[in-house]
Specification:
Lipocalin, globular, ten-stranded antiparallel β-barrel, single chain, 20% helix
């Protein structure tokens, strides 16, 4: 009777502990996928091959490097894009905050830098960005890209019409993104209030092939 009573007491405790224990395998998988996403996004990329196949595309160089490695809330990347013939005058400079979401997807939130051109070329010297902090950046509300991992790639984009844009008469912008180990596909477009496209590619996404950072 005593042995039976002891078992009756122990089993509920074990079940309770099992219920309280975090799902380690799932958490490890999410962390691993976050590391994979950041690794694939990091490096130097070129759309030169796409531009050679189709002259409606520009030869664009894209560089992304990790910054603020000591911070623990997700991962931070500095991104810089410039035309191949204007490498010293980037037309896009952003900071991305890449983090895991509760539903297992990943979010790349977009931030603007103050006086961005003073940081041109910082992908070669990421420590130049140590003078900045997250609260010195400006969030592009509604413009975060949400990605899911499936079939060996991350795919996703912005949500609905939440990313505002005033460029060339646009009311909002959308981004569609695919991240693979050796390339990224990006399709950025602007739309007016009636849903008509007013800027961006009409011939499909830009294809950025990784040239360094493998």
């Amino acid at each position: 009777m005593r042995r039976t009573t002891r078992l009756a007491c122990v089993v509920p405790v074990l079940l309770a502990l099992a219920t309280l224990a975090p799902p380690a395998p799932a958490g490890g998988r999410v962390t691993g996928d976050l590391d994979r996403l950041v690794s694939w996004m990091t490096g130097s990329f070129s759309s030169e091959a796409r531009a050679q196949r189709d002259t409606s595309f520009f030869d664009i160089r894209l560089h992304a490097v990790p910054i603020w490695l000591e911070r623990s809330e997700g991962r931070w990347l500095y991104l810089e894009q410039a035309r191949g013939d204007r490498l010293d005058r980037p037309y896009r400079q952003r900071v991305y905050h890449v983090s895991a979401r509760p539903d297992g997807s990943f979010e790349s939130a977009v931030f603007l830098l103050p006086g961005p051109l003073r940081f041109a070329g910082a992908w070669r010297e990421p420590r130049r960005l140590d003078v900045l902090t997250p609260d010195s950046l400006t969030a592009r509300a509604g413009c975060a890209v949400v990605l899911r991992f499936a079939r060996g790639r991350f795919t996703g984009g912005t949500i609905g019409k939440e990313c505002p844009s005033e460029l060339r008469g646009a009311a909002y912008a959308t981004s569609e993104v695919t991240v693979e180990k050796e390339r990224m596909l990006t399709l950025d477009r602007g739309w007016d209030a009636d849903g008509r496209q007013v800027w961006g590619s009409t011939a499909g996404p830009y294809e950025f092939r990784k040239v360094t950072g493998r």
